[in-house]
Amino acid sequence: MEKQSSVSVVLFLHAALLISTCFGSKSWPSKKQVALFIFGDSYLDSGNNNYINTTTLDQANFWPYGETYFKFPTGRFSDGRLMSDFIAEYAHLPFVPPFLQPGFRQYYGGANFASAGAGALVETFQGEVINLKTQLKYYKKVETWFRHKLGDVEAKVTLSRGVYLFNIGTNDYISPFLTNSPMLKSYSRSRYVEMVVGNLTSVIQEIYSGGGRKFGFINLLDSGCLPGVRIIKPENNGSCLKEVSSLAKLHNKALSKLLIQLGNQLEGFKYSLYDLNSNLRQRIRHPSKYGFKEGKTACCGTGQFRGVFSCGGKRTVKKFELCEDPNEYVFWDSLHLTEKVYKQFANEMWSGRPLNSKSTTGLYSLKDLFQDL
Ligand SMILES: *[C@@H]1O[C@H](CO)[C@@H](O)[C@H](O)[C@H]1NC(C)=O
Ligand SMILES: *[C@@H]1O[C@H](CO)[C@@H](O)[C@H](O)[C@H]1NC(C)=O
Ligand SMILES: *[C@@H]1O[C@H](CO)[C@@H](O)[C@H](O)[C@H]1NC(C)=O
């Protein structure tokens, strides 16, 4: 035991030496790097909510979050890494730090603005999350940083080489069911979807006008089938909540349509679109085909499907059970996925065939977007 650990210390020192020799004193990532800017919700939040005044409902900075890969809680809503962490790795970037993490930083590698619980509408979990509009405001600060560093012209060129990854909307559609907010009752369903997609569109257009050209989108999962949503109506006996799933479906149609439009309208607009909806549904239905034992019940939580959002024992309900091996599960907690499934999605998103492939203008895989087009 003793001997083994000293061997690994030596190995570690060697590795550290090797890294510092390879990269020398160069700051890394450099301004030649294609940056990754991340917007959205808990599926991409690497810890911004650790630094806002919110509740444990929107935080994951306690055990057992992070237990497998990091061995400590980082604020990520998973046992380990998220899709965006794998995308950064494939793009040869270090982990993209949360924008709100204190400390001096340079942004040549990008920044992560995502916030658990956030939606495209400011009303979604209002006061407890960093909504998409505020995420854009933070991005504007980063734009200013680039202009100070590089000048207006070179900043715009550098920002145009960056990739802008989005996962947003699920909270807009599930929050009315989780909180009894009147938002969904005040509008028709199609008008509500129009508002969500409209607010996302404004953010895309703002980024585009600052120079952004390459966008990665993830469509909305079948949110009615989340363990935490299946249990909202006990009389449903645990089947997927159709009202919620159909909103996600409407949204996804509108998103596909929007991207085809933007591809035709905006000069130089390039995008990828990952079909999270059908790829997650496949794994819920046929977990063993993808290397999982359980597709419906979460690893961490309590109650039917472990759908009660209690993982870690720091939220309203304190009781929770934790599975032995998260790698056997699709769902990590009642609303989020395990690192294993996030990695599968990141792999497909990186090089797989994107959705919307009938449209031609501007559609790429994420990998293509990172190659300097
Ligand atoms: C944080 O939010 C709580 C509840 O809304 C409030 O009472 C408290 O003053 C806030 N704290 C800060 C530092 O803003
Ligand atoms: C954005 O959302 C707000 C509600 O938060 C709505 O009133 C507004 O019309 C939406 N904007 C667009 C462009 O759809
Ligand atoms: C729900 O499940 C119970 C027990 O399995 C069954 O008796 C009941 O008929 C089911 N209800 C519906 C609406 O499917």
TrEMBL record:
Keyword Signal: yes
Signal peptide: 1-24
Lineage top rank: taxon: Eukaryota
GO molecular function: lipase activity
CDD domains with a match to the protein in the record: SGNH_plant_lipase_like (cd01837)
Keywords (A to Z) from UniProt: Signal
Family according to the record: Belongs to the 'GDSL' lipolytic enzyme family.
Protein name, as recorded: SGNH hydrolase-type esterase domain-containing protein
Species annotation: Malus baccata
